[in-house]
Amino acid sequence: MTLLSVRNLRVSFDTEAGLVEAVRGVSFDLGRERLGIVGESGSGKTMTGRSVLRLIRPPGKIEADAMHFDGADLMAASEAEMRALRGRRMAMVMQDPKYSLNPVMNVGAQLTEGLRQRDRLSAGDARRKAIDALEAVQIRDPERVLSAYPHELSGGMGQRVMIAMMLIPSPDLLIADEPTSALDVTVQAEVLSILDGLVRDRGMGLIFISHDLRLVARFCDRVLVMYKGRVVEELAARDLMQARHPYTQGLLNCLPRIGGSRGPLPGLDRNAEWAR
Amino acid sequence: MAGVATWLREPNPTSRWQARAGQGYLSWLRFCRNPLAMIGLAITVLLVLMSLFAPLLAPHDPIAQDLTHRFIPPGTPGNWLGTDDFGRDIWSRILFGSRITLYIVVLVILTAPVVGLIIGTVAGYFGGWIDQVLMRITDIFLAFPKLILALALVAVLGPGIENAVLAIALTSWPPYARVARAETLTVRNSDYIAAVRLQGAGAARIIWGHIMPMCLPSVIIRVTLDMAGVILIAAGLGFLGLGVQPPLPEWGMMISSGRKFLFDQWWVATMPGLAIFIVSLGFNLLGDGLRDVLDPRSAGR
Amino acid sequence: MEQSDIPGHQAPLLRIARQAGATTAQLLVTFIGLLAVTFIISRVVPIDPVSALIGERATADQIAEARLRLGLDEPLWRQFLLYVWQALHGDFGLSIKTHQPVIQEIARFFPATLELSTLATIIGVLIGIPAGVLAATRPGSLPDQIVRLVGLMGYSMPVFWLALIGLLVFYGDLGWVGGPGRLDASYDMMMEFEVTQYTGMVLVDTALNGRWDMFANAFSHIILPASILGYLSMAYISRMTRSFMMNELGQEYITTARVKGMPERRVIWVHAMKNVMVPLITVIALSYAFLLEGAVLTETIFAWPGLGRYITDALLVADMPAVLGGTVVVGAVYIGLNMVSDLLYRLADPRAR
User: Fold this and answer.
1) A118 and chain C: CB distance < 8 Å anywhere?
2) Pick from C5, C7, C262: CB nearest A157
3) Residue C175 reports pLDDT greater than 50
4) What's the rounded Cα separation, in Å, for the pair B94 and B104?
5) Residue at B22 is within a domain
6) In Å, how far is C261's CA from the nearest CA of chain A?
């Protein structure tokens, strides 16, 4: 069953230096599965994720032949309809909790905000739900974290708070935009396994955006490889090693491998042809 | 002409000079795209031209009194901004007054930023107790409201244009010291300063040759934004009779003399005020535009 | 291990208190430095403080006695210590013109300035913040251009000229507001005898006494100068609000709030505004202080019996103790405002605690 379908998505920015096209004709379908989007910085992967939520700010512009989420037409939806979808049914975890959490509101206020404002829960109920959510991301001392401010949390804690906050309303679709890139290597695995478990248990659709091809391959069912705003290859994660496109092969080859040759790693070869 | 433009737009400059000229050209293009900044530039250029050619442009003597022509309303041929209580042509007085305004502004911006730059870079470079002492002094001067300190100083020094300049300069250097110190702190520990130090350069040469140039852009932006403030304070001193003395046509003083006839001959006080307003608006627009071009990070601040 | 990253929460108030203590010590140093500057000015003054005090025709004995009383025979550093000591006790000497203690006169004039600049700041905040937010949320739009231009015009106008034009138009031509002074002449006497002066601020005192007729009259007098000063403060506040708000709206936590499905109103006025308030507190305090300065010239035009007019009047008759006393008081208010804004800043920003 298709949860999200995107046809010919284009995102462009009208800047002083002329029209910049960040995404140029991306199409894909997503069921209740995990889809990875991989590419180097500037490949348009983040913009693709944000356009699904329609969170591109002016001067950015989103165009698409069609974009449907569970029967709702995302291109035709009013801003109010989009707001109802965001939060409740679609959510997003961003890269760095240092920036993605509001620095002057405590964790409790940010966690319960959706429940209080949107679902009109009482303060006590919202608080109980927030504590449950924090426990679900394996935070041992939820009471204390609730009254903490973001700058008092470590990166791993912050990202777990972020995940808890986004999963409170049990959305159907979660977009994770480089959720572990800003974290220490030691906590990355921990946060990933928490995310993995939650997504699996709740049967959500997941779009996992990353520059790390191997990580994506391990974590997702399917992978889109993006280059300069276009999808250059789409393949099942288990077939990654058989990738045919030279760019994907390039991405794979510039990672060190245990037991591989000890010579210098090859640089990424870019061909202007691929961007056509 | 087209050749020059391509030379300037060359993405791969062959010399440092070409690269710098190209950068300047791009900044200029960006500046030109901001209509408000262009208006500011036009006003500033106009002010300079007005003061340079005041004797040629002025239809009348700005000081000679003619009591038979008192209070001619504006719009009258020959005195299109009207005349004041002594029958002097207001337009001619504003023209000559622009020289005084420009004189004060130029003297202040030649002194205050230099003092501030020296104090700020020295404090930032040496740090420690030198920094503590210099910054405490800066704080003390910042704790005085500018105009009131200037008033007290002029009261002591006696009224007059030089003393007004001195008082304004003495009250306007602290912000420059702050800016220069902040910039110095960011470059002080950089590798290229260390490299210069390893070559055996002394503190004076490092500060003068390597740190001050780094502080210049932010100081220049502040200067253009401060010019309007200098004009307003100078006018305020003139208005209180503590700046330029009569019969010289200083704009603030002209407003003050027109105050007595405000309700009957409104133009005497209104016209010089308009002149102050337009000129300082020009400086503000120019400064705003310059900041957007030179320091895109803080655009809009 | 993760848990230990959260510091205890019982201490922030204590920490604020300690930091406030350090700030106070620093401000005290600044205040003494301020006194040093006025001290130097007062000793450079060509006016002989002795003859100013006891008149030109005093005998040699009287002069010697006065010099002794003023401590002028002491070495300079002891004179300075005495000066600081007296200033800390509110003793700025006698006014040369009125022979009254300067501090008493300032206490009489200050409430008028306080009333005027407070009302002006309220006007500036109430208009400036929404205007800045409006401009920041629609950059480049017509409202943005208008807010920017109106703000820049406020930066560029000589306040005394604006005051004159305001008087000419709204009092002279239209007659919408009361003229110079704090009350109509007919009410002046009543204010003196029928109204208990609790604060020295006319609006407050008339309201407390239930004299609404006088309140209305006082309001018609204060509204024009307060609006003019309020315009200046609005220009500053709207400009800064715009720039702070634009900065915050580009932050990632704003996207988070939108992802959570929060309406734009809440994103701007709760999420962004809480962050904007942190630097804006300093800006508002600065604009308040800046109005004290604007008041010097405005009060002259509106015959407003405030501190600004007290200082300028004293200047014109070279009454130096009054000028310097007034200058020190204004400087002290500046320093005090700095301290308050510093404290509020720490309360508003959890990272600064």
Assistant:
1) yes
2) C5
3) yes
4) 15
5) no
6) 5
Q: Do A165 and C260 touch (CB under 8 A)?
A: yes
Instruction: Determine contact, residues A247/A38, Cβ cutoff 8 Å.
Output: no
> Residue ranges per domain, chain C?
3-88, 102-352
Interface test with A, best of C10, C247, C258 (most A CBs within 10 A): C258
Amino acid at C166: G
- Provide the percentage of residues in chain C whose pLDDT is more than 90: 17
Report in angstroms the alpha-carbon separations of B190 from A161, B184, B205, B211, B212. Answer: 38, 10, 16, 11, 14
Considering only CB atoms, B140 lies closest to which of C33, C242, C327, namely C33
Domain total in chain A: 1
Using a CB-CB distance cutoff of 8 angstroms, which residues of chain C are in contact with residue B36?
Answer: 149
CA distance A263 to chain C (A): 39
- Contact partners of C by the rule of 3+ C-beta pairs under 8 A? A, B
Between CA C13 and CA C105 the distance in angstroms is 38
Interchain proximity A151–C271, CB inside 8 Å: no
3-state secondary structure of B73: coil
- Closest by CA position to B301, among listed C350, C151, C278, A96: C151
User: Does the pLDDT of residue A211 top 90, yes or no?
Assistant: no
Q: Determine contact, residues C224/C174, Cβ cutoff 8 Å.
A: no
Residue of A nearest to C252 (CA): A100
The verdict on a CB contact (< 8 Å) between B152 and C293 is: no
What domain count does chain B have?
1
In tens, the pLDDT along C78-95 reads: 888 888 888 888 788 788
The pTM assigned to this predicted structure is 0.84
Q: Which residue of A has its CA nearest to C276?
A: A104
Per-residue confidence band for A254, with pLDDT thresholds at 50, 70 and 90: low
The more confident residue out of C105 and C197 is: C105
CA atoms of C328 and C86, how far apart (whole Å): 12
Residues with Cβ within 8 Å of C351's Cβ and at least 6 positions away in sequence, in order, are A103, A104, A149, A151
Looking at residue C79, what is its pLDDT? 81
Q: Which residues of C touch B155 (CB under 8 A)?
A: 45, 315, 318, 320, 323
- C-alpha distances in Å from residue C119, one per residue of A84, A171, C125: 43, 50, 10
Q: Distance between the two ends of chain C, CA-based, in angstroms?
A: 23
Paired sense of beta strands A60-63 and A173-177, if any: unpaired
Fold classification of C102-352 is MetI-like fold (1.10.3720)
Helix ranges restricted to H, chain B: 2-9, 16-32, 35-52, 54-57, 90-126, 128-143, 146-157, 161-188, 191-198, 203-206, 212-239, 251-258, 267-294
A contacts of C266 (beta carbons < 8 Å): 117
**Would you call A114 and C261 a contact, using CB atoms and an 8 Å cutoff?**
yes
How many contacts does B have with C, using Cβ atoms within 8 A? 144
Eight-class DSSP state of A220: -
Segments forming the whole domain that contains residue A55: 4-257+266-275
User: Between chains, do C259 and A86 touch, taking CB under 8 Å as contact?
Assistant: yes
Rounded Cα distance between B196 and B211, Å, is 11
Residue C45: pLDDT band (50, 70, 90) is: low
**How close does chain C come to B101, measured CA to CA in Å?**
14
Across the interface, whether the CB atoms of A94 and C252 are under 8 A apart is answered yes
Smallest CA–CA distance, residue C302 to chain A, in Å, is 43
Task: Give the HSE-up count for residue B21: Cα atoms under 13 Å, Cβ half-sphere.
Answer: 14
pLDDT at B298: 46
The answer to the question of residue B146 being in a domain is: yes
Per DSSP, C101 falls in state B
DSSP code per residue over C302-314: TT--SHHHHHHHH
